[in-house]
Amino acid sequence: MTRHFAKGFLIGTLCICLLGLVWLFAFQPRLTAQEAQDLKAQFTTIPEDDLSGDGPAGKEETQLDFETLQARYPDVKGWLTIPGTVVDYPVLQSSAEDPEKYLRRNYDMKWRMAGSLFFQYDCMPDSRNLVVFGHNMNDGTMFAVLKKMVNPEFRQAHPIAILQTAEGMHEYRILTAMTTDTTQLLFNRTQFAGDEDFLSFAGSMLAGTEIVPQKQDRLLTLVTCAYDWDGARTVVVAIEQD
C-alpha cells in the first residue's frame, strides 16, 4: 500500500509540474501580449480632429496619451510597433543600478516569463542609437520575429518600425538584420565622441546596405538572443525616416 501511495504521489507531483511548465511556457507569454494590448487600449486617445467625422471612415489615427500613461507607469518610455507582426508592446527603461529590471517583469512589476521590451539604461530620447532588448520567445511573441528579419524577403514585407514616445511618433525603416555578438560588432553603443565617431559606427552597423549614413541620422537597434553560439544575438537595424 505504501508503494502504491508513493507511486500515486509521484505521478500527481509530475502532473502538477507538467501543468506548471505548460502555464510558464505556453500561457505566460500570451498573457504578456494581452496585457500589452489592454494597456494600449486604456491609454489610447483619438485626436479631436478625427472625432468630428470629417476624415475618411476608418482612417482615424490613434495615439497614446503618454502624459497620463507615464504618470501611472513612469518607466514606460515608448511603444514599439512593427506593422504586420506581433510586435506591439510598451518599451520600459530602468537604471544603471538595475539595467535588466524588466527582463522578467511587466510594466506593472508583475513577474512574467516573457518580461518586457526595454531600452538600454543609457538611452535617451535624442540618442543617436536607440537600443531595445526583448526576449526571443518560443511561441513567437515579443522579439522572436527578429530572427525572420534576417530573410530579405520578410524584411521587405515588414519594412517599418514605429516608435511612439512622449516626444511624438518616430518612423524607422528597417535596413538590415544579422546574427552577431559584441566582440564582433559593438551594436549597443549609445555614446559617441562626435560626428565622425558616429558615422564610423553607423557605417559598420549598415554594412552591406546601400545606405551612406549622415550625421543627422538616428538608428534604432533591436536585439534578442540567438543560439548559434554562446553570446550570439539577432540584431535588427533601422534608420529614422525624415
Summarize the structure.
The protein is α+β, with helices and mostly antiparallel strands and 242 residues long. It has helices spanning 2-42, 48-51, 66-72, 152-157, 195-205; strands at 44-45, 63-64, 76-81, 88-92, 117-119, 129-133, 160-165, 168-180, 219-225, 233-240.
Topology:
Blueprint: H1 2-42, E1 44-45, H2 48-51, E2 63-64, H3 66-72, E3 76-81, E4 88-92, E5 117-119, E6 129-133, H4 152-157, E7 160-165, E8 168-180, H5 195-205, E9 219-225, E10 233-240
Parallel strand pairs: 4-5, 6-9
Antiparallel strand pairs: 1-2, 3-4, 3-7, 5-6, 7-8, 8-10, 9-10
Fold and architecture overview:
The protein is an alpha+beta fold. Helices cover 29% and strands 24% of the residues. It has helices at residues 2-42, 48-51, 66-72, 152-157, 195-205, and strands at 44-45, 63-64, 76-81, 88-92, 117-119, 129-133, 160-165, 168-180, 219-225, 233-240. Strands 3-4-5-6-9-10-8-7 form an 8-stranded mixed barrel. Strands 1-2 form a two-stranded antiparallel sheet. The longest helix is centred in the N-terminal third of the chain and has 41 residues, at 2-42. The N and C termini lie far apart (76 Å).
